[in-house]
Amino acid sequence: QGSVDCPNLEFEYGDADGHGAEIAELYSYTEESELSTNRRCFEEDFHAQVQGRRWLEVDRAQQKAYVMRLLDGLEVVNRDKRLKVARAILYLAQGVFGDCDNEGDVLHWSRHNSFLLYQLGTFTAFLELLNMEIDNSQACSSALRKPAISLADSTELRVLLSVMYLMVENIRVEQEEDPPEWKTCRETFRMELSFPVHTEEPFALLLFTMVTKFCSGHAPHFPMKKVLLLLWKVLLFTLGGFEALQAMKVRKREELGLPPLPEDSIQVMRSMRAASPPTYSIDLMEQQQQQKRGHRSRRPLVKQDSLDIYNERDPFKNDETGVDEEENDDVDSGIEGELDLMERDAIIPAMPAQRPPIERVSFPKGLPWAPKVRQKDIEHFLEASRNKFIGFTLGQDTETLIGLPRPIHESVKTLKQHKYVSISDVQIKNEEELEKCPMSLGEEEVEETPCEILYRAMLYNLPQYMIALLKILLAAAPTSKAKTDSINILADVLPEEMPITVLQSMKLGIDVNRHKEIIVKSISALLLLLLKHFKLNHIYQFEYVSQHLVFANCIPLILKFFNQNIMSYITAKNSISVLDYPHCTVCDLPELTAESLEAGDNNQFCWRNLFSCINLLRILNKLTKWKHSRTMMLVVFKSAPILKRALKVKQAMMQLYVLKLLKIQTKYLGRQWRKSNMKTMSAIYQKVRHRMNDDWAYGN
């Protein structure tokens, strides 16, 4: 498995990958030939208008005038002429690479031209064209008649979506040297995408509709990868990324009068270090030792007294090997222990310093998270204590402590110190009050946030959107076998002429795998964004979306995704860096050979695959947290060994989410499992937040 010497992965989780990488993933390697077509369309037209000068040498006024001319050309009736103009605009958005010397220049001009195109109303013009293309029944019916769909069937759609994606991505990403007019431009664009002006629904809804239309089989030629990438980036741009979410959460807690969060989870995770996983070779040794013990202790087991069942005396206790193994474990964890000490020192100073001293006290040394207690936990604890010591309960009263012994008073005080009230708790309480007194309280004032508008627009067809996204995720998962009834997601990667040489088919194989990985990445990221934003906006919106994800079999789907060799998925080399945009536009391509394709790049891991894995684990956590029936689904689908294998990836954030999923089901896995997985148990203890009176480790 090659996991024993798996090094720590230097992976920085974020909203998205680097700007260049995100733009490169828009294109398949089979689309490479179209780059020169775009350039030709632009240069033929531009040189007819402006003699003897390049785009980079023309002043801004002339650039504007030329773009306006191009936009007029989009109004013509002839489809081919329209496509030529759209290609010329795409070449501008791609950064006029014919005039550039290096990759940095291409990306710079791509940004510059995207802002220019947006200011002159290109996005709206392309939105109209996109609507026309979506409703183009002729293209749909010809695609449905074909036995095999290829790139040629989606040419117009791909050009339109590429221009829109480049504009969204270039304008979304902030850079320090952006002029002030670009900043206002960014805000206007964000407003335009979030709050629909001309249409009834936000732009994201149009893309969701494309996804469902594709999945229903009515439009098999839609280039799904580009649609999903654009949809993800539009949601990221309009709703905000993880840092923006954290800031919104802090602001909302202030508005509701709740105490500030005990820590910034993004920062805590960044300072966490990966634990050494329970490695494969050690697992093997453990199994062998258990078999040895099994052989040795077979005789005593037969004669064992029936009373011993009640004493729970361990039949292996008298065995020397048991002691040996414990000692081995200690030797092994010596290095880990040192690492832990370093880790503790590293974590504590990383906390913000300007905090009142009271909170410092409640922060356990060496553990990354402050413990949390829910109101419900305090009530349960008091109910049990009153039943035991007084013989009756007082319902939800958590103040009266008469008749309870001193230690119970102390316990309640500690629990209350760590009590955490979430925004969701407040929202649920408000809903209950509104239900009790609908007349006197009147209608609730709902703030028109981008999230609220999106939810209202999605609500009507929400189950269909979730089913469609999961269908595509299933088709793109590496563990899925190519079934005849699954949807064909390769329409926008397969060329018209299928490969004839070994080299061509190798290249196409890499392209297809990369294509699937990018689809998984965009779906996992957009589902996580939706869940997180809806949860903050209103808990019941989140519950409704997650319910439909669960109905659509999201839990077994994610577990199926992880039921593979995760290390090889994360270190997969399904990319040919010399063919990546913008490298392939400014550098002479070396001769590709089967050997060079097989070698791949020398990255330690594949960013997008690790990103996808973390997102899927986070979605699974969101769906199962505090939900007993869904936790039982994890147990029933035998997720523990699958998740344990995922711990082999030495990346702190990924391990944390795996450990969280193991923690919620530990008490249902039985004593034997806990006994043979003590390393995992101690990793949970070190990494995952503690709930004060949670019996996760020993409850049966």
UniProtKB/TrEMBL annotation:
Task: Please state every residue range assigned to the domain named Far11/STRP N-terminal.
Answer: 6-308
Indicate the segments forming the Far11/STRP C-terminal domain, all copies: 405-700
Acidic residues bias (residue ranges): 321-332
* SMART domains reported in the protein's UniProt record: DUF3402, N1221
Disordered, as annotated region: 312-332
Any one GO cellular component localisation term in the record: cytosol
Listed under GO biological process in this entry are: cytoskeleton organization
What family is it from? Belongs to the STRIP family.
Name used for this protein in its record: STRP2 protein
Its source organism is Rynchops niger
Corresponding gene? Answer: Strip2
